[in-house]
Design goal:
This protein is mainly alpha-helical. It is built from seven helices and two strands. A two-stranded antiparallel sheet has the order 1-2.
């Protein structure tokens, strides 16, 4: 089951992370804290329960745009539902809501660019970590070599 950090929940609900922490402290939002370093984690079930009993956020729970990132609806469905909701809000006069393919393409291109940037950042971090690992391995080998040479000299001196 998926878990969410305080920051993820704050971003989803468009509120301050401290507000989410206050809900947790007051017992309104149930959370698990395995370690102080990792902070509070809220399971999907706990988040759903909180949203159902919170009048301000109950409507958000039913929103397809919100459901997408939280409860597994795909990116395309989320984008389409966001466009639909925006159009329906603009067409409050009751006229038919039509989705323009160019709008979807535009949103998808933005999503693609965001994903590519995220992947590039993560790949760069992987390269940095690999470089750090190689440097530490070299240091480890030097220390082990020194220990071996000291052991050999000590063994020779004891004979």
């Amino acid at each position: 089951m998926k878990s969410y950090s305080v920051k993820e929940i704050a971003d989803m609900l468009k509120t301050n992370p401290e507000t989410v922490r206050r809900w947790i402290r007051k017992g309104k939002l149930e959370a698990i804290q395995d370690s102080r370093k990792e902070g509070n984690l809220v399971s999907e079930q706990m988040l759903k329960r909180f949203l159902r009993v919170s009048p301000k956020y109950a409507a958000i729970l039913a929103s397809p745009a919100f459901l997408g990132p939280v409860f597994g609806i795909g990116t395309v469905a989320t984008i389409v539902s966001e466009i639909m909701m925006n159009k329906q809000q603009k067409n409050a006069n009751g006229s038919k809501t039509r989705i323009n393919i160019s709008e979807i393409k535009k949103k998808l291109k933005i999503e693609i660019d965001d994903k590519k940037q995220s992947i590039r950042r993560k790949e760069e971090r992987i390269r940095e970590l690999q470089s750090e690992i190689e440097a530490e391995k070299a240091e480890l080998e030097e220390v082990q070599q020194l220990l071996r040479s000291m052991s050999t000299k000590t063994d020779d001196a004891e004979k």
